[in-house]
Amino acid sequence: MHASHRHHQHSHGHHEQRAAGSERRLLLALALTLGFAGIEAAAGWHADSLSLLGDAGHMLTDSLALGIAALAAVLARRPPTPRHSYGLARSKTLAAFANALFMLLLISALLWQSLQRLDTPRPVDADTVTVVALIGLVINVVVATLLAGHGHDLNTRAALLHVIGDLLGSIAALASGVLIKLTGWMPVDALLAMLIAGLIAASTLGLLRSAMHTLMNGVPRDLSLPEVGRRLAGVDGVNGVHDLHIWELDDQRIALSAHVSVRDMGDWPQVLARLQRCAREAFGIEHPTFQPEPVAVQPLTYVPSPPSPDRHGETAVSGGPR
């Protein structure tokens, strides 16, 4: 068996094992979160605590988010089909995008309710808030621990973001209960809810940008299109590279396609192997696609950064003399 084929099988197997483990953790997190959301909602209603009700609503929304994330993880493992030749890997990115939007809606609702409560403070059962928030804090720490060490993809990161929001919400509710018990100052309940909403919003917007970048076929943020073009054009036997495209199938797999101008088409098998090795070793791109072309009458010229588009909208890079 060819070494690169063995490497692909090992990499694919490792990816499958990690994906299956991610599904199990997401499902367990879903069960814990959904179970406690009902308890917290009942306690919040009884105690008339906005921070507790807000946290319960947050956990209920998180249960939906975790369910979406778990479903997306299952869909992403489905093999390619004639209708979806890349499979459904981007379902995880789409789930992350949807979950980020859910978070922004929840934050908006929580801020609105907090402002309303500041205008008309209401008495809060501090003892109930403190006990339930403490239980919620423990559960959220357990769920966050389940996901934190495996947040490699946007989908799991989105689910983890929801859980961290719950964790912060539990801390806010706990602090609210303790401060009300000690001082009797009711507005602290709404003020802490607003503080947590602001903290969660900052992380949510970052996640939303990352998911949108992947969905829009953006070049991975840790790669430079001109730099990749120059490295490929410098491979022995290559005269130039143009129509270079790099995009993310999801946030773990990178795709590349390029037209390659070759001096001697008879050398293409050896040149192709060198190009694939360069893409894999220098940039971590496992499955690039290269289309060979004979050397044009006019040699391609190097376009300095920032790159100017050629007639196809992509950078043209020459390999230079050998």
Describe this structure in words.
The protein folds into two domains: 3-215, Alpha-lytic protease prodomain-like, CATH 1.20.1510; 225-318, Alpha-Beta Plaits. Helix 2 (50-76) runs antiparallel to helix 3 and helix 2 packs antiparallel against helix 5 (154-183). With 322 residues, the protein is an alpha+beta fold. The protein has a four-stranded mixed β-sheet. Residues 1-15 and 297-315 have low confidence and may be disordered. The chain contains eight helices and four strands.
Average per-residue pLDDT, rounded, comes to: 76
Instruction: Estimate what percentage of residues fall within beta strands.
Output: 5-15%
Percent helix, as a range, is 55-70%
Q: What is the radius of gyration computed over CA atoms, rounded to a whole number of angstroms?
A: 26 Å
Write down the overall geometry: elongated
Low-confidence stretches: 1-15, 297-315
Spatial gap, N to C terminus: 34 Å
Domain count, please report it.
2
For the sheet with most strands, the description reads:
4 strands, mixed
For this structure, what is the CATH homologous superfamily of the largest domain?
Cation efflux protein transmembrane domain
Q: What is the element string, with H for helices and E for strands? A: HHHHHHHEEHEE
Helix count, DSSP H or I runs of 4 or more residues: 8
Number of strands: 4
From the 3D structure, determine the CATH topology of the largest domain: Alpha-lytic protease prodomain-like
Structural class: alpha+beta
CATH architecture of the largest domain: Up-down Bundle
CATH class of the largest domain: Mainly Alpha
- Biggest sheet strand line-up: 3-2-1-4
